[in-house]
C-alpha cells in the first residue's frame, strides 16, 4: 500500500514537472513568435523620384496620414513633383470636398516635405520607396548609399516594373536585405487600386506584413508575387503588347482595328496601342531589352521578347507616345491620352 502511495506521489510530481516544462516551452515559443512576427507600423515615408510615379506615391502616402519626404536631385524636379500632386489633389477635392477645395489640398500638402539631400531624407524614415530611372546600376547605387544612412529597422522598397528586386537588394547589407522588397504601383497611382508586393528569398515575413498593412491603409489592393521577370501584370501584359505590334508589322490588322477588337471583344478599357502610347513606346522597348537578357539565362521564353523592327523604328524617330505627342496615334486626337 505504501509503495503504491509513493509510486502515485512520484507519478503526480512527474506530471506536474512535465506540465510546468511544457508551459514554459509554450510561453517561450509564443514570445518568440510574437517578436519575430511583429509588424512595424509605417508612419514616415520617403519617396525618391518626383516624376509622375514618385509624386503619385507621395500623394497617396500623404492622403493616408503618413508624414512624407519627397526627394530628387534638383529643386526643379521637386517643384514639378509638387505641381503634379497639387493638380491631382484638386481633382480629388472636387469629389471629396467640393466646398473647400483649397483647404482639402492644403491639409494634405502639409504632410509632404521635399529635399535634395538623400541622406537627410531617410534619417527618420520607416519606409523608403524608390521610383527613379529604370536602371539597375542607378538603383543599386542609391540603395547602397541609403543603407548607410537609414535606421536599422527601415524598410526599403523598389518600384521597379521589370528589374530583379533581389539584384537591386544585393547593394545593401545582409540585415537590410531581410527588410527589402518590391512595391510596384501602377500609373496613375492615385487612381489605380493595384499594388504588387514582390518578395525575394530573403524578404522577412514581418517586412511583407508591414508593406501589406501600409498599402491597405493607402486604400490599395495588394497582391503578392515572387521575384520573377515582370512579376504578375507585366509578365502577362508585355508579351501581349509586343504581339500586338507584331500583328501590325505583319500587316494582319491596323492599330485602330486591334484596339477596337480588344475593347469591344475582350472588354478591355483601353486597347493595346492606346495603352502602348500611354505607357511610352521607349519604356516598352526598354523592358523588352531587359527581358532579352533574362531570356538568354533561361528565365523567360526567347520568342516572347524578340526585337521588333517597327517598335525600334518609332522610338528612334522620337515617337514615344503620350510623352512626345505622337506614337501609334496622334495624342491630340485622343482625349484619354492627354
From TrEMBL:
Alphabetical list of PROSITE patterns matching this protein: 3HCDH
Top-rank taxon: Eukaryota
InterPro entries: 3-OHacyl-CoA_DH, 3-OHacyl-CoA_DH_CS, 3-OHacyl-CoA_DH_NAD-bd, 3HC_DH_C, 6-PGluconate_DH-like_C_sf, 6PGD_dom2, Mito_3-hydroxyacyl-CoA_DH, NAD(P)-bd_dom_sf
A Pfam family recorded for this sequence: 3HCDH_N
Enzyme class: oxidoreductase
Catalysed conversion reaction: a (3S)-3-hydroxyacyl-CoA + NAD(+) = a 3-oxoacyl-CoA + NADH + H(+)
3-hydroxyacyl-CoA dehydrogenase NAD binding domain span: 45-228
Subcellular location(s) of the protein: Mitochondrion matrix
Keywords assigned: Fatty acid metabolism, Lipid metabolism, Mitochondrion, NAD, Oxidoreductase
Principal location: mitochondrion
Pathway field: Lipid metabolism; fatty acid beta-oxidation
Assigned EC number: 1.1.1.35
Sequence ranges assigned to domain 3-hydroxyacyl-CoA dehydrogenase C-terminal in this UniProt record: 230-330
Coiled coil: none
Family: Belongs to the 3-hydroxyacyl-CoA dehydrogenase family.
PANTHER family hit by this protein: HYDROXYACYL-COENZYME A DEHYDROGENASE, MITOCHONDRIAL, PTHR43561
Protein name, as recorded: 3-hydroxyacyl-CoA dehydrogenase
Organism from which the protein derives: Kwoniella shivajii
Amino acid at each position: 500500500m505504501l509503495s503504491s502511495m509513493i509510486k502515485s506521489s512520484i507519478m503526480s510530481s512527474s506530471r506536474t514537472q512535465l506540465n510546468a516544462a511544457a508551459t514554459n516551452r509554450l510561453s517561450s515559443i509564443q514570445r518568440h513568435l510574437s517578436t519575430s512576427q511583429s509588424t512595424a507600423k509605417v508612419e514616415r515615408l520617403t519617396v525618391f523620384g518626383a516624376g509622375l510615379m514618385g509624386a503619385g506615391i507621395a500623394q497617396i502616402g500623404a492622403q493616408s496620414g503618413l508624414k512624407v519626404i519627397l526627394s530628387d536631385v534638383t529643386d526643379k524636379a521637386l517643384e514639378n513633383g509638387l505641381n503634379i500632386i497639387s493638380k491631382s489633389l484638386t481633382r480629388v477635392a472636387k469629389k471629396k470636398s467640393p466646398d473647400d477645395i483649397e483647404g482639402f489640398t492644403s491639409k494634405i500638402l502639409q504632410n509632404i516635405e521635399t529635399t535634395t539631400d538623400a541622406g537627410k531624407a531617410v534619417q527618420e524614415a520607416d519606409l523608403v520607396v524608390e521610383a527613379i530611372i529604370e536602371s539597375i546600376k542607378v538603383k543599386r547605387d542609391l540603395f547602397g548609399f541609403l543603407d548607410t544612412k537609414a535606421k536599422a529597422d527601415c524598410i526599403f522598397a523598389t518600384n521597379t516594373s521589370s528589374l530583379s528586386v533581389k539584384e537591386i537588394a544585393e547593394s545593401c547589407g545582409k540585415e537590410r536585405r531581410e527588410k527589402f522588397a518590391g512595391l510596384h504601383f501602377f500609373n496613375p497611382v492615385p487612381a489605380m487600386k493595384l499594388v504588387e508586393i514582390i518578395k525575394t528569398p530573403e524578404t522577412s515575413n514581418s517586412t511583407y506584413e508591414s508593406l501589406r498593412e501600409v498599402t491597405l491603409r493607402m486604400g490599395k489592393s495588394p497582391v503578392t508575387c515572387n521575384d520573377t521577370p515582370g512579376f504578375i501584370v507585366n509578365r502577362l501584359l508585355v508579351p501581349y503588347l509586343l504581339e500586338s505590334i507584331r500583328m501590325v508589322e505583319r500587316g494582319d490588322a491596323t492599330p485602330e482595328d486591334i484596339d477596337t477588337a480588344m475593347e469591344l471583344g475582350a472588354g478591355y478599357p483601353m486597347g493595346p496601342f492606346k495603352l502602348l502610347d500611354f505607357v511610352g513606346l521607349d519604356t516598352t522597348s526598354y523592358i523588352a531589352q531587359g527581358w532579352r537578357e533574362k531570356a538568354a539565362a533561361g528565365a523567360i521564353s526567347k520568342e516572347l521578347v524578340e526585337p521588333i523592327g517597327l517598335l525600334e523604328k518609332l522610338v528612334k524617330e522620337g515617337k514615344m507616345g503620350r510623352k512626345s505627342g505622337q506614337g501609334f496615334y496622334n495624342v491630340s486626337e485622343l482625349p484619354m491620352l492627354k
